[in-house]
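queue> holo job accepted (NDP)
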Amino acid sequence: MKNALIIGVTGQDGSYLADFLLKKKYNVFGTFRRTSHKCFERIEEMGNYDKITRIKADLADYSSIQSAIRQSQPDEIYNLAAQSFVGVSFQQPILTADITGLGTLRVLDAVKENIPDAKFYQASSSEMYGNYLGIKNEDSYFKPRSPYGVAKVFAHHMTNHYREAYNIFACCGILFNHESPLRGIEFVTRRITWNLARIKFKQIKKFTLGNVSARRDWGFAGDYVEAMWLMLQQNKPDDYVIATGESHSVEEFLTLATEYAGLGDWHDVVEIDKSIMRPTDIDELIGDSSKAQKQLGWKPKMTFKQLVKTMVEHDMSYFKAGMDQFHLHN
Ligand code: NDP
Ligand code: GDP
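queue> job finished
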């Protein structure tokens, strides 16, 4: 039986990856941060709370990362932890650099010092590419447009450096946006489905959005965690783009979600608020995952329409069951 350590198990991807690895019979260890409120909702919703060995660790604290590694003795380490929200990175650039950038270096160094034979996965991001046109692959250059993107580029290059300099089996998955019913409530897709459910259940009449013409390559998180695992099963470590190859605008997502929610025309329920717009945004992101498809045998399964429908249905059923009481605001 293999041991896996998921750094950031309480997040969207951490919850899906834990579920995936438990089904593959791994011993799953996962880190969480001390908070003054509940943080295990996602792994509880998946029914996995008791199946995961939970270890307190923070990416700001090197000794806690070392302890997590020593305690779990992992064969595979997945670094999914980050200040992951681009919007907040403009307001908290230093924290983002410290956690998303330097935090990865702390993990890499702890791996090198304690368990150099373990396999390491780094959650790189399509945000690293920035705003120039075209479909991006592993050879496309990085020109990030947010403190988050800059921090991820640092972490990406550090991961490559540890692979080359110290022979660590380290892989970067350059994942394009991926969503699910467990997506953080501040990201645009979940903001839309969550607020549509609030409207349907008469809690609010309207909500606000920012730049609805932005286009993203949106896949399903459940499909993407399989790619993370596949990368670590190869003979050699490498970097891979994981994407669907299709882009859709926020407005397309909104139109479809409003339709699935049975709420008619989105203009009746959404107002555009310029203050939500970012100092710099990315107009469009599309990824070319042909390397992953060829070498890993990976393919996205859920379509864009299925993804929107799944998220709308989840949030509607959540409100219907009266489960929304702890989440009135976003
Ligand atoms: P989430 O925001 O849902 O999860 C992030 C995780 O990081 C949470 O478990 C969070 O803990 C943890 N974390 C945050 N700060 C710290 C810290 N200081 N110390 C330890 N843990 C911390 O993100 P996703 O699951 O969506 O994404 C997973 C990874 O993939 C992230 O690195 C993200 O940047 C990257 N990524 C995501 C994409 C996407 O579309 N989802 C696209 C490309 C890359 P807590 O629950 O306490 O906040
Ligand atoms: P990102 O691609 O990681 O930044 O994911 P987000 O879901 O946060 O944002 C995707 C796109 O939606 C960006 O171009 C945002 O500017 C745009 N957007 C428009 N309105 C909103 C909003 O209300 N919230 C968020 N998070 N993004 C919005």
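queue> The longest helix spans residues 93-114.
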